[in-house]
Amino acid sequence: MGIHMQVIIALLLGIKRNGHIFIGLLLGIIVGCFLPKVDYPTVYNVLSFVGTAFINTIQMVVLPLVVSAIIIGISNIGDSKQLTKLGSKMIFYYAIITVLAVIIAIAVAMIMQPGLSAKGLITHDVAASVQGYVTSALEYQKDNMVQIFLDLIPKNPFEALSTGKMIPIIIFTTVFAVALSKAGDISRPLVSIFESIFAATMKITDWIMYLAAPGVFALTACAVSTCGVGVFNNISKYIIAVILALAIQFFAVYPLIMKIFSKVPVGKLYSAITEAIMVAFGTASSSATLPLTITCCEKRGISNRVCSFVLPLGATLNMDGTAIMQVVAVLFMCQMYGIEVSLLLIAEIAFLAIVASSTSAGIPGAGMITIALILNGVGLTPEQLVLGFSLLFAVERFVDMFRTICNVTSDCVVAAMIADNENELNYELLCNEVQKGNA
């Protein structure tokens, strides 16, 4: 049986096991199509409230989960050689996957030329509504690459915690965790506290997942009702290009990488994480999905040591789905404005997309903020950014839902490969459908 058929069967089995969430997705699409926001604002407001409440309840545990998971993961590794080994493998796998994602996105965008069909579709009225948003992003990022990297190092860790700046939080937490692991037995009581925090947040996650079906239903309905059918027709080639590149990444790159670097059965892993994939689609947030991602991976045999180290870092730093969107979006803009796309320009876009996607927060729409860094780097004016952004923003939520699937799946793939490499993957638990269903 071909690998692609194995993946499809695995996803179908996962959908069957989590049918309530899948039904929520389908009903959300149907309701969104028949009850557009323009005609039914009250219904939209109710659905928006339910969906936002669901995301908020999940994000409530993200910060304590990330901090406690990283500290536990690094503390459990203990040996600095082991920490370096795991960290280098994680960076290696994430780098390969992201570079391949960018190459695929460039190829798809250059072949399909989605920007050529979008000329003349942008109105100044729509553009004006996002002008302030885009201008504020550009003011900070314009010609300021050095400062962007400096901002990743928190001057005040508690300020970063209070404002939810995930990358500075992760940097400080990682340094703090390494220090705890070097401090010896005297740090054990503090580590035990974080182990308790982690256990409590995972229990809260189990409770929150009872709301998954209505939450995903509401979020999906809001996304579809907001975009409407017309906007999909106007920018269909861009949407198709992004989804095609994401599909190649999902159905070809991930299975191929797993085949080359591990013995992990692709179909079994995809089946195991289908619940996280569907919630990722509904929430469009890898950070909001993180608690469920960890739960799926641990219950299916990936060790806590690997999960608590790889997945929280991946949910913030590994955004190959976002990199794909950003590359296609920038090339879409270049084609739309008639900018000549040279090899040097493509190389610059590719590099900036890797940097920009890595600095994107794992929340809905974050990729559209850091994309301004790429556009500014290739010399587009603020006026062009405003016009282009208005069209991209119109379908952003819809595209975001698809790319979040890749972001989350990529994290699970890397965690599974590292667990396999380190003999910390329980294959009996991963491959036994009965145990998996009862986990």
Helix/strand class: mainly alpha
Described by strand count, sense and barrel closure, the largest sheet is: none
- What is the percentage of strand-forming residues? under 5%
Give the proportion of residues in helices: over 70%
| Shape annotation | globular
Radius of gyration from CA coordinates = 21 Å
**Which ranges are low-confidence, i.e. pLDDT below 50, for 5 or more consecutive residues?**
126-131, 434-439
Q: How many H/I helical runs? A: 23
Mean pLDDT: 76
- Which H/E pattern describes the elements? HHHHHHHHHHHHHHHHHHHHHHH
Distance between the termini: 27 Å
- Extended strand count: 0
Oligomer: single chain
Compact overview of the structure:
With 439 residues, this protein is an all-alpha fold.
How would you portray this structure in words?
By secondary structure, the chain is mainly α. Helix content is 82%, strand content 0%. It is built from 23 helices and no strands. Helix 1 packs parallel to helix 13. The longest helix has 37 residues. The radius of gyration is 21 Å and the shape is globular.
Which helices and strands occur, and which strands form pairs?
Blueprint: H1 3-17, H2 19-34, H3 41-77, H4 80-112, H5 124-129, H6 131-141, H7 145-150, H8 157-163, H9 166-183, H10 188-208, H11 212-234, H12 236-261, H13 266-272, H14 274-283, H15 286-299, H16 304-317, H17 320-336, H18 343-358, H19 366-377, H20 382-394, H21 396-421, H22 427-431, H23 433-438
Helix pairs in contact: 1-13, 2-11, 3-9, 3-10, 3-11, 3-15, 3-16, 4-12, 4-17, 4-18, 4-21, 6-19, 6-20, 11-14, 12-17, 12-21, 14-15, 14-21, 15-16, 15-21, 16-21, 17-18, 17-19, 17-21, 18-19, 19-20
